[in-house]
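Could you please consider the sequence and fold following this short note?
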Amino acid sequence: MKHAFVTADVFTDRIFGGNPLAVFPDATGIDPAFMQTIADEFNLSETVFVLPPEDAANTARVRIFTPAAEVPFAGHPTLGTAHVLAATGAVPLAGDETRIVLEEGVGPVPVTIRARAGKPVFCELSAAQMPEFGPAPPPAAEIARVLSLDPGDLAIEMPPRAVSCGVPFLFVPVLDRAVLARARIDLAAWRASLGDFWAPSVYVFALDPELPDSTLRARMFAPAMGVDEDPATGSAAAALAGFLGAQPLASEGTLRWIVEQGFEMGRPSILAVEAERSGGAITAIRVGGGTVIVSTGEMDIPD
């Protein structure tokens, strides 16, 4: 049976930038047993299957798959799916802002769709789960070895830390953008040090971005998910707010960061991150960005 799909680039305002995504806007007739195989066939960071909501008050239920595994939450699939549903008319736009709720493995995820001239231009999610801090990571020397770096390349004023807003990441600040560009995953070292760690995906960043409006430059490596490197990672950006918001000098109130990611891959992506910090704790996190539809098509999937 033929099922329609849409591909889109997320966290960008131009085609062939950002993070590619495949979305099946109506996956009700797709056998769940094929979903992982379909995601592997697309071989994009994620593929999304949109299903009727379990709670009629919500907009839809979504299942998100990397080429290797289903994940309970991911940022660019959430935002890209919201954009696709709005752009195709599956979700009617209610003026300049439309609010929807997508059911994911972490729970209901609110998304605000901003429109201009009747078309979606920017989507912003509110994280369903506040930051959870994991166990202490391996020693810095081991982490540096995993990234093919020297221990002195890491930024000692912000030690690596594992944080999750539904998907755990190990955050590793490095000295500068030049160090970031040199990072490469040593798979043997990764298996030995992080393969069984609470947060096996590694998010490396530097506080000297390329663009004047950006706050930091990042790269994300997720071998356990079948993703060698991800051009833009919304779930990590949400957890990044937890990492940065927990730093000793973090201020109270609304915190904002603009993240560059994917530049080393030739897929420049811009992620807008906000957090609310009160009494030393993060109480809300928002991640947003633009999306561009790239293609539409049909896949003939066995019944």
User: Anything to note?
Assistant: The chain has a mean pLDDT of 96.
